[in-house]
Specification:
single chain, 477 residues, alpha/beta, TIM Barrel, 4-stranded parallel sheet, 4-stranded antiparallel sheet, 18 helices, 11 strands, 41% helix, globular
Length: 477
């Protein structure tokens, strides 16, 4: 359940009241973890996998009501903001958020300059990445929010101080709200399950501050960029466009860049999903300027040299490997050697024969079973548009209309021997295509779904808790 998809009155899910109510709901439902999408600032296309920083938090998640309680906003300012977003309960309007939210946060920032001066200074001294991120964002504003490759001014100057202060405050406010939110989630017996994108955006503080960590030419232009070859989701592959890492240089200092990055993620989350884990075995490199990802080729990744560095350094952190995509032998070998649990997705289970690794009888305990991920259709849509696979699923799992096909597939996932089972909230609610989070290979119109307020919390929690208990998945409390 993405933070952005929570209901609420400010145009997008926040770290306010509805987030706490959802934690209460999960507790009532007997659940042990809440998986979310990356929590960083979003850029063009609104994808949380393309962020201005791999350290910073999303400004839109800052809850105005909490700022009001702290004396940083007035009740009237909150009411005015609520009015602006009165018609956005169905879907996130990122354009409207961008046009209005920073103006609101600037008012809070100006008041915080005196009220929280010492606390903000301490936050920056303890989180040096916040200084770099704020400088980057101030420079972006000075350059008309253009991409890093179009900047004419690259040196921070005093004229940018106001914007610098705003973006420092935004991270200060996010950090305060996140820590309280996470502490509350944990107090309900629930782990926060986060997601670390394998790549960072070219237009990011990460690349601006440390260009030497990436494969760029003397003009800071990427030599090759990221993507994946043609697959289940796209016949042309997916051209992500992120700069690729200079793994040879990273290895020279023991992968300190990765250690710092995962260290920040470990502050935010209890469990970490490593996105596109197969890229550590081998990654798809596409020539810069190519029109589709089909023009790419496989390049050997850092393998266990990097993976063991991270798992040893963060021995107390639970990692999950997103090992989906083309299942080449090197990926399986790396997953086996790492000992990390991989992913099994029921929507992929009925595409081939009985040897399909996503079929529950082929699951292993050291794995995480999903009905589908944020890149998949909802179960209701998948059942509707895949009649052949649905027929096989009916035979395999005894699906029937009385129980409901989506409910039957959730039951199937619950029965898996996988140590953890995760179902998207939209599947529990039985929602169709209107609740799809992302369609890979498309640049716009994604990441917008919002759950409607007023869903039957008590009856749904009881239903989830009962099914969880039947299959022995209820957490120890």
């Amino acid at each position: 359940m993405p933070i952005s998809s929570l209901p609420g009155k400010y145009g997008i899910g926040t770290l306010g009241r509805e987030a706490y109510l959802f934690a209460d709901f999960l507790n009532q439902a007997g659940q042990s973890c809440w998986q979310i999408l990356p929590a960083g600032p979003t850029t063009i296309g609104d994808s949380p996998y393309q962020s201005f920083s791999s350290y910073a938090g999303n400004p839109y998640f800052i809850d105005p009501d909490i700022l009001c309680e702290e004396g940083l906003l007035t009740e009237e300012e909150c009411r005015e903001t609520e009015t602006i977003f009165r018609n956005t309960a169905q879907a996130v309007d990122y354009g409207l958020l961008y046009a209005t939210r920073f103006e609101l946060l600037k008012k809070a920032s100006d008041r915080a300059a005196s009220l929280y001066k010492a606390e903000i200074e301490r936050f920056v001294s303890e989180n040096q990445w916040a200084d770099g991120y704020a400088r980057f964002m101030a420079l972006k504003r000075a350059n008309g929010m253009k991409g890093l490759d179009e900047w004419t001014m690259r040196t921070f100057s005093e004229e940018m101080t106001d914007d610098y202060r705003l973006f420092v405050f935004i991270q200060f406010a996010f950090d305060r709200q996140w820590k309280k939110f996470k502490a509350y989630v944990n107090s309900q017996g629930i782990k926060l399950f986060g997601d670390v994108p394998i790549y960072v955006s070219y237009d990011s503080a990460d690349v601006w501050q440390e260009p030497g960590q990436f494969l760029l030419d003397e003009n800071y232009v990427p030599e090759k960029v990221s993507g994946v070859p043609p697959d289940y989701f796209s016949k042309d592959g997916q051209l992500w466009g992120n700069p690729l890492y200079n793994y040879e240089r990273m290895a020279d200092d023991g992968y300190s860049w990765w250690i710092n990055r995962i260290g920040r993620a470990a502050e935010l989350y209890d469990m970490i999903r490593i996105d596109h884990f197969r890229g550590f075995a081998s990654y798809w490199a596409v020539p810069y300027g190519a029109k589709t990802a089909k023009e790419g080729s496989w390049v050997k990744g850092p393998g266990m040299d990097l993976v063991s560095t991270l798992t040893n350094w963060f021995s107390g952190t639970e990692f999950i490997a997103e090992d989906l995509g083309e299942a080449t032998p090197d990926v399986k070998e790396l997953l086996d050697e790492s000992g990390l649990p991989g992913m099994k997705v029921l929507q992929f289970a009925f595409e081939s024969d009985c040897n399909n690794p996503h079929l529950p009888h082929n699951h292993t305990p050291n794995s995480v079973c999903y009905t589908g991920t944020h890149d998949n259709a909802t179960l209701a849509e998948w059942i509707r548009i895949n009649p052949k696979e649905r027929i096989l699923a009916e035979k395999y799992a005894g699906l029937n209309r009385e129980e409901g096909y989506a409910e039957g597939l959730i039951r199937l996932g619950m029965s898996s021997v996988s140590e953890l089972f995760v179902a998207p909230m939209a599947d529990w609610l039985g929602l169709d295509e209107e609740a799809r989070i992302n369609t890979p290979g498309t640049a716009y119109g994604n990441w917008q779904w919002r759950m409607q307020d007023g869903y039957e919390r008590n009856s749904l929690a009881e239903r989830i808790c009962s099914l969880t208990d039947i299959f022995g998945r209820k957490r120890n409390v």
